[in-house]
Amino acid sequence: MTQLTDIRGEHLPAALSLAASGVPVLPLRAGKVPFGNCRRCADNACGGRPNMKTAGPCACPGPCHAWAAATTDPDIIRSGVWRRAWMRASAVAYHPGGAWLTVVDLDNADAVAWARDTLPATRTVPTTRGEHWLYMGPMQSANGVRPGVDIKSTMAYARYLGPGTGRMAKLPDVVRALTVKERPTVQPTPQAVTVTAPAPAGAGAGECRHRTPAYLERGIAMAERRITGACGGVHATVYRTFLAVLSAHGRCGCLTDAHISRLFTAAQGKGESARHCTDAWTNARTRLGL
């Protein structure tokens, strides 16, 4: 994203600078909320905008459709009704999906620590309470995918807080897996737990080719904590956790039966049956093509 000298100053120049770099922008009111519908568009009477869930054109010239009003058109951004909105705005927001981006919104220190242990390094932007991690590529948005973690991409907006630091990485499977719900069981018959992926050439037993054995150990330990700490939706939590572990380590030959047994033990400690654990693991492998 474009470097801006003072995002806290006048918002219109900041918005125009972002739009010029291909990032769709919109103004936010106090409280980090978008401008509400005008009278003509109240209760979606206008039929929405073409890129909203409700299809249909909207001729409203103002930024009254939240993320769907985000634009890169400088004429719209400078127009009278938008200019009046910028005068009242408290911040600039953008539509990450429209810029082909995904924002992992980490809302507290625990969430940031989880990301540093679990997610590939990428560009980070400090926020009031945590960090935004930016990845190249859009995906489904979702709130509360784990404690203190939201995904902002398609059909969502994020506050612009500066360009951030670090090189932006491609959107990894481990982030996509956070919003995936378990599919129906692929193989109803319980299967033996085996690891079929061979260790990479030159790697020692249990080593991970993209990081270190310590990285794998932290990942398994965090996966255990995520399962044992689930307060609800244990079934879905187990599946998403298995999917995340396999997304990060399922292709590098570093997972062993001992690692998998630890995950199964954690799940069974929360009341999951051995059969469900096996089915969830099989489903996760199938979804990832392993």
Biggest beta sheet summary: 6 strands, mixed
Helical proportion, percent range: 25-40%
Which residue ranges are poorly predicted, with pLDDT under 50 across at least 5 consecutive positions? 2-9, 185-206
The ordered string of helix (H) and strand (E) elements is HEEHHEEHEEEEEEHHHHH
Shape: elongated
Distance, first to last CA: 36 Å
Number of helices: 9
The helix/strand class is alpha+beta
Radius of gyration: 22 Å
Strand content: 5-15%
Q: How many beta-strand elements?
A: 10
If you average the pLDDT, what whole number results? 81
Give an overview of the whole structure.
Strands 4, 5, 6, 7, 8 and 10 form a 6-stranded mixed beta sheet that branches. A 4-stranded antiparallel beta sheet has the order 2-1-3-9. It has 290 residues and is an alpha+beta fold. It is built from 9 helices and 10 strands. The longest helix has 16 residues, at 213-228. The chain has helices at 11-20, 74-78, 80-88, 109-118, 173-176, 213-228, 234-249, 257-269, 274-288, and strands at 25-29, 33-34, 91-94, 101-106, 123-126, 131-136, 142-146, 149-152, 158-159, 169-170. The relative contact order is 0.11. Helices cover 34% and strands 14% of the residues. Strand 1 and strand 2 (33-34) form a beta hairpin.
